[in-house]
Write a structure and sequence with these properties.
single chain, alpha+beta, 62% helix
């Protein structure tokens, strides 16, 4: 799976694990949803954070930025 595919899968998963779009979600829930190990989840989270699409928070939580939400919406519209 390419880096771009991993980023797209992660963003799509945020829409599944977050009960309300744009709200805080657990990084553990993302790993479980995607069936990825924690190291891979952290690697992709870091890439998303560097790209300004995700903000990581304390206590294993994160929130998708407005740009990340737009990107996730664009990805879902393509499907």
């Amino acid at each position: 799976m390419s880096t771009q595919s991993k980023i797209e899968a992660y963003l799509a998963a945020t829409t599944k694990v977050s009960k309300v779009p744009g709200r805080v979600f657990s990084s553990t829930d993302i790993c479980r949803c995607l069936q990825w190990d924690r190291a891979l989840c952290d690697e992709v989270s870091s890439q998303l954070e560097k790209a300004g699409l995700l903000n990581r928070l304390p206590n294993d939580q994160a929130i998708v930025t407005s740009a990340g939400m737009k990107r996730a919406g664009d990805l879902l519209a393509e499907d």
